[in-house]
Design goal:
Length: 472
């Protein structure tokens, strides 16, 4: 009887005792599906919020420090490893920012969204000049709708225009706005600045694009163009930026492996490097394939402007006096070009004359390079690789190891063209040439040819030749 009582207590169907508590559990198990989904969403959301990352903008979010451009000040802030987490960007302590650096923040936010991060912003409400104000003036609050709707543009202040570059229509709109923006400075500035920006935008559309998927659809990752006239210093600053493959990866498709991003950028500013060439003369008409960075950087120099090309961890600065390169500690995944030009009303210059000069110079350089290839020579445009003042010993050593030593071992003639090089130090030239001279021995007097060099450079190289062939 005892066993029968136990079975009866649990019941014939469930095999367990049914209590008021169990009935409540059964009732909860019969909630409708929408209630269950809502509760699960709430749990997941709490778990996700527990992983939230807050990124606080520094007091100064700008490239400028003591009159010098320091790109690590900005690139060190970005965290590219964030994926599948909520990200909160806090503007409240940012008391100073400029529009060009904030343009990079827009690209970064797009990248976060593509990495399945939710992005929220904490802003300051006061009207002082700060990061929040710059963000609003640019119309950056529309940044996410811009990425997925090709008809949406930034609702920017007319004096602080910014454009998402997604297609040829964006290109035309941006170029037309620039013409209107620079109209007060005269026709030559209008056409010349439009030319520089057009070349940079062509590069973006051809080489800087990357794609992302969002809710089952494929979209191009936009590039950005932003320009601002700073009235106090009477300068126009503009930036063209993308998060594409970068210059080094792009050029590596056609050239031997490049040792550094610096080297890739220096190669890219030479004529006829990144384009595709056929039988047609690339300098006839308006066909400037492979000439974009070469022409735009030379025009900027003529206008007494500065161009900074940043890709990966390399930065090349083209100034009116020189071309220098350096490495930054924190990479930019893609390329951005920052240009600053002083806007002098009444300054006369002729774009057509400049273009003819640059094309003729480029034609001569490319011809010399082609002739060198045919004759199994190594042609080196010294100004393209080392600037107007060839003085950085480390750059000489890197170039020597990669190019000059292999050429010397193969017995090639090395042609050093010093056109536009104003000066070069003994330590630089010795680092560049001493080892190749020792390899060639007395043949170095015939196999190392120096052209278009100033007398001081000729004399220094002659001394290095004599010094390194004494024992031969």
């Amino acid at each position: 009887m005892k066993d029968t009582h136990v079975l009866a207590a649990f019941g014939p169907s469930s095999g367990r005792e049914i209590t008021e508590k169990n009935r409540g559990e059964m009732n909860r198990d019969h909630r409708n599906p929408s209630q269950i989904r809502e509760q699960l969403y709430g749990v997941r959301n709490k778990m996700r919020q527990a992983k939230k990352v807050t990124l606080e903008l520094p007091a100064e979010f700008t490239f400028n420090k003591d009159g010098i451009k320091h790109f690590d000040l900005i690139t060190s802030w970005f965290r590219w490893d964030l994926k599948d987490v909520p990200v909160e960007i806090d503007f409240r302590k940012c008391s100073s920012a400029n529009y060009q650096s904030m343009s990079l923040l827009i690209l970064y936010c797009w990248k976060l969204k593509q990495n399945n991060c939710t992005v929220n912003f904490l802003h300051s409400n006061d009207d002082s000049y700060n990061g929040s104000r710059v963000w609003r003036m640019m119309g950056a609050q529309a940044l996410f709708s811009v990425t997925t709707d090709p008809k949406t543009s930034f609702p920017h202040n007319e004096h602080k225009p910014i454009f998402a570059i997604r297609n040829s229509d964006d290109f035309k709109t941006a170029a037309a706005t620039l013409e209107s923006f620079t109209e007060p400075f005269g026709l030559e500035y209008q056409s010349t600045l439009r030319y520089i920006i057009s070349e940079l935008l062509y590069n973006v559309l051809e080489h800087g694009n990357s794609d992302f998927f969002w809710r089952g659809k494929r979209y191009p990752s936009p590039a950005v163009l932003q320009f601002t006239w700073y009235e106090k210093v009477n300068e126009l600053h503009f930036i063209v930026a993308d998060t594409g493959v970068g210059i080094r990866q792009h050029l590596s498709q056609s050239y031997s492996p490049l040792n550094s991003d610096q080297e890739a950028i220096r190669l890219a500013i030479q004529p006829e490097i990144s384009g595709t060439f056929g039988a047609q003369d690339p300098y006839s008409g308006r066909n400037n394939a492979g000439m974009g960075l070469y022409l735009s950087s030379n025009i900027a120099k003529k206008l007494r402007g500065d161009m900074y090309i940043c890709s990966g961890d390399g930065v090349v600065h083209v100034s009116p006096q020189d071309t220098t390169a350096r490495t930054i500690s924190h990479r930019w995944p893609g390329t951005f070009v920052l240009v600053t030009i002083r806007m002098d009303r009444g300054t006369e210059f002729a774009l057509d004359a400049m273009m003819n000069e640059f094309r003729e110079r480029a034609r001569a350089e490319v011809q010399a390079r082609d002739n060198a290839k045919k004759e199994e020579q190594l042609f080196v445009s010294m100004s393209n690789f080392f600037g107007a003042r060839a003085e950085v010993k480390e750059e000489a050593i890197n170039y020597r190891n990669k190019y000059l030593l292999p050429a010397a071992k193969e017995g090639k003639t090395i042609v050093l063209d010093f056109t536009d090089v104003l000066s070069s130090t003994h330590s630089f030239l010795n680092a560049l040439l001493a080892s190749p001279i020792r390899i060639l021995g007395l043949r170095a007097y015939k196999r190392i040819r120096v052209v278009n060099a100033k007398s001081q450079i000729h004399e220094t190289i002659s001394y290095i030749l004599d010094d390194n062939t004494e024992d031969n």
